[in-house]
Design brief:
Elements (H helix, E strand, L loop, with lengths): L1 H13 L5 H19 L11 H14 L8 H8 L3 H10 L4 H17 L8 H7 L5 H12 L3 H7 L11
Helix pairs in contact: 1-2, 1-3, 3-5, 3-6, 4-5, 7-8
């Protein structure tokens, strides 16, 4: 059912940008997905359903980002598909499940760094967003954003003088 909702929302959000062929493809995949839901089965080889599956997994991951159990295995279990099916669905949209989770966690940590006074330390952010330790978090952050979390926090606002690395 999550796939059906995710696909419907995705089609609704992009309908104005779809070509006639895109509208036809969206319609066809919606019908296939509705049939799969009605028959309580999911054909993991159906390529038209992959974008809907990837979107459903992204929606679920976004709602669980701070959960230490969040993983491709957990997402696949919640969506009633195999891990391999989930990986194939993400491959059709050009990324991996693990990379998506990591990028979203880094983005949420980046946003927290701009929260102003009382924001969490780098160590607290690393722990909250499920990085092994602050060193891993700092390396991943720098690779993604080109600067360390501390450098980023100092550069994004006035008066950022309190220590971030506790």
């Amino acid at each position: 059912m999550r796939l059906l909702v995710a696909h419907t929302n995705m089609v609704h959000a992009t309908m104005a940008d779809l070509s006639p062929a895109g509208v036809h493809a969206a319609h066809s995949s919606l019908i296939e997905l509705a049939k799969a839901v009605a028959q309580s089965r999911f054909d993991d080889m159906e390529p038209r359903l992959a974008p809907a599956l990837a979107q459903a997994a992204k929606n679920l991951a976004d709602s669980q980002l701070a959960d230490p159990e969040l993983s491709p295995t957990m997402l696949a279990r919640e969506l009633n598909v195999s891990v391999r099916t989930l990986q194939r669905a993400f491959a059709t949209v050009g990324e991996s499940v693990t990379a998506y989770i990591r990028h979203r966690r880094l983005e949420e940590a980046r946003l927290a760094l701009t929260a102003g006074p009382g924001r969490p330390s780098v160590s607290e952010l690393a722990a909250h967003w499920q990085f092994a330790d602050s060193s891993h978090f700092i390396r991943a952050f720098k690779k993604r954003y080109g600067q360390t979390p501390t450098e980023y926090a100092r550069a994004t606002g006035p008066g950022r003088r309190f220590p971030l690395d506790r």
